[in-house]
């Protein structure tokens, strides 16, 4: 139950793999992607 064990979190870190014990962290979308830069505010005159 250590670095050599495939089923433990420490073993997954040692091997550099992912699984149920150590899922991949998904990146959150940045603020820039939420607000589209192409659409500019229309100025009322």
UniProtKB/TrEMBL annotation:
Coiled coil: none annotated. The keyword Ribosomal protein applies. Keywords: Ribonucleoprotein, Ribosomal protein. It comes from the Bacteria. One of its GO terms (cellular component) is ribonucleoprotein complex. Pfam families: Thx. The keyword Isomerase does not apply. Residues 1-13 have a biased composition (Basic residues). InterPro entries: Ribosomal_bTHX, Ribosomal_bTHX/bTHXc/bTHXm. This is 30S ribosomal protein S31. It comes from Mariniflexile fucanivorans.
């Amino acid at each position: 139950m250590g670095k050599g064990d495939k089923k433990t979190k420490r073993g997954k870190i040692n091997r550099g793999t992912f699984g149920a014990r150590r899922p991949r962290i998904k990146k959150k979308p940045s603020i820039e992607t939420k607000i589209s830069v192409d659409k500019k505010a229309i100025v009322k005159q």
